[in-house]
Model the fold of this input.
Amino acid sequence: MVYYFDSIEVNTEKVTLIKNGLLINIEPKLFTLLIFFCQNSHRALSRDELINTVWEGRVVSEAAVNRAVGQLRKIIEQDTAKPVYLKTVSKVGYQFVADVKQTYPQTAVKIENESSVNLALSSTNASKSDNKLTLSHRFILSASFLILVSLSIVFVFTKSHITENAHSVEVTKQSPITTTNNSTFNPYFDPLTQDTFVLYKPDPQSFAQIKKLDSQGQSFPITDDSYYYTDVIPHDDTNLLAARLNNLNERKCEIVLINIASQLTQKITDCGQSIINNLVFNSNTNTVYYRYRSKVSHPYSIYSISLSSFRVQQLAIPGATGNGLGYTAFELSPNKQQIAMIEYKSEETDQLQLYDLNTQEVIQHQNVPKGIRSIIWWRSKQLLASNSEGLLNINLSQQLTTMVKSTTGFGRLSIKSEHALLFEKSDTQSNLVNIDLSHLNQIMLTNLVGMNGKAAIANTSERIIFFSKTPLTSKLLIRDVNGGIIDTHFPEKIRHLTTIDWSEDDSKVVASVNDKLYLLNINSMQWNSVKFDFNNVHYVSFIGNEHLLFSAEKNENWNLWSLNLATKETALMTNTEGYSGHIENGYLFYTKFSSKGIFYKEVTTEKEFLLVEGIPVTDWNNWQVNSDNLTYQQGGQLKQYNLKSKETSILYEHAEKPLQYCRTDTHLKAIICELKERSVSNIWQANMESLI
Done:
């Protein structure tokens, strides 16, 4: 990432600071501090927050923070006595007030497909659009052209040939239009009525419902029922289209038409199982586009239904690559002739596909950053998108993605006008808590910013390894027996983590990160990738000290396998599906990819038995086997099944508490859970300014 403000350039990949064209020497900690200020410009930051993020929770005095800020001012300010970038906020901390712009490094530009080749070939023509390309783009295009000519390769121009000039966008004057202490999310602005429709939850345990915000800011509830709504968009000036789940256990999805005045509901179609759906409506053809999957184990596809004939059609089939999510976001173009679709990929990037509704084929492919949650069309060949890192500008002409605003919490986006944007902004905080099962006393184990959870407890001590994600970093940390926090320095960016587990003697930790396996040697604190024949690995746990149990897809089936760490030999452990598992006393306990329940069998046989029925497939990682006891969550309770006595007991009631991912300690006297301390989302508005 490259950050710009005035004459200063901060490059996070090259780790360089350039001021007035000169390379400036800067200490690593000051460089990290500057990056954090750039990512949080115009926000007042307390010294505690700086300590928890930049100093990663280490014991640092406020005086040390003040000294670091003073040193940073000497580097970036003209006059440290009158700072223009880094202001002191009385009784709070500091505020970085520079107008920061962000972009990905130019090395991210790739000449990969025919539409890019068309641009390369057309670069020899002296057109007006060429004059607005940067020198670096001209060099890349010219070089590509010479290489193509020298190799005598003939390319055919495709229908996706693009000649429109590139625009960039700047987001300014952000302000909230809702200020609740709960969850208001998924905004959609209706230009016909000037109303904004949103989903809201008055408390964490409530089902999401629909309400309307009029142009004066008045709020009017639309629904109040037992359904959980996942999206809402206008159909016309009297009706809404909504996607909803029947409940949070069965999670059957349906799309309905709701009359705003009478609240009468008409079912349109089913949309699958356990799917947080988003809807798009084409008023020209009276067609609704939506995501669909028949089972929770299937990837998302894009479907359409005509509200005139009720004909259902599948537009896009996701690729069968590993544990793919399928299509995660999509949006209709302004001329209603194309749909931009984001497909999850197991690689470093996901893929944007441009689907032509007339020819019913994909006319362009383009790599985009991971984890895009929402996309909207801003120009005819440009989209805005949101992911966990911020707001992105996707340019279809240049096949390039740039960062508009680097910040966490961006969710659903909605265009309010040509120069105004609505977006969902959330703030979530969680930490680890220890709950004594005898007296139900709670003790906070961590006090860090961001999301801290997915903990694994050591077998021979009270050490805990857990995943910590902040606005600046994603890390695997260890809490030692004295309460100190140790960074394990994971070697790559953690896009997603599924499981962590300790070896039996606690000498090693295994983690499934980014669909790969990594081993941590506790003595040397060194991570190493586990090299073997499986590419897309999901769940992992230890068998003793030198073997692993992991799940992976092979021949389009998910099963559990064992791996000998010394020889790299693998052996199939299940042949009727397996998604997560644990071996205890010669028995394999496991869940399945598409069947409810927890199953078990002897390791040396194939005959399986259902141990606990009704456990949702989505709870594949919400159970454990510990000292002849199986613990699992069900109906707001943490239950324990004794494998010897075959008796079930309730360990803890947590239906009204924001707890998740609970694990018992080795003595079964306490549980350690992820406690959600804060989860607030509101709707914000911002101005969009075009920069040519």
